[in-house]
Amino acid sequence: xxxxxxxxxxxxxxxxxxxxxxxxxxxxxxxxxxxxxxxxxxxxxxxxxxxxxxxxxxxxxxxxxxxxxxxxxxxxxxxxxxxxxxxxxxxxxxxxxxxxxxxxxxxxxxxxxxxxxxxxxxxxxxxxxxxxxxxxxxxxxxxxxxxxxxxxxxxxxxxxxxxxxxxxxxxxxxxxxxxxxxxxxxxxxxxxxxxxxxxxxxxxxxxxxxxxxxxxxxxx
Length: 220
Ligand code: G3P
Description:
This protein is of the alpha/beta class. Helices cover 55% and strands 16% of the residues. The relative contact order is 0.12.
């Protein structure tokens, strides 16, 4: 399973990358806005940091023509750009054309299996079901991930599922059990995934026992 980090914060990306488990980055206008910096230099800096690993950057046009124009500009910024396009009719028109042009796309704001199926049929490189927002609305977002895993594998669609709007490690684990290709994880959630109280206790005990032995052997 690939881990993308869902942030536009360069420090977070650099730190998470240092842990050795980051396969890419996703951003959206909200995450970019949170940083309070210009879009273009921010995206370019993330792309440079990631090397050849994918970086999703989102269009803000609502018509296919505008989305296509933005997508082509974004794709010119770096070879690892993935253009994030919202799930809607105009968006899927754009995705179809971009996939024919060889520009990678990530269909965002996917909340139903029907939408995910359409994204795959349009030729999306990635499709992002927003599990946390579905949970927030009182349903189970992970059901959608299971449905998309089943549909894509039944028909052999090459579209990769990015489990997005992740709120907690359980979302990632469940997605991994079902074979989702990617989880895009907020920095805090990724940080949490490294920890377990028994690991901390175990490390303390091993260290204490080691130090005790050194004392017994007169080495301390
Ligand atoms: O990047 C898309 C998605 O992960 C946003 O998540 O937390 O705003 O629902 P959230």
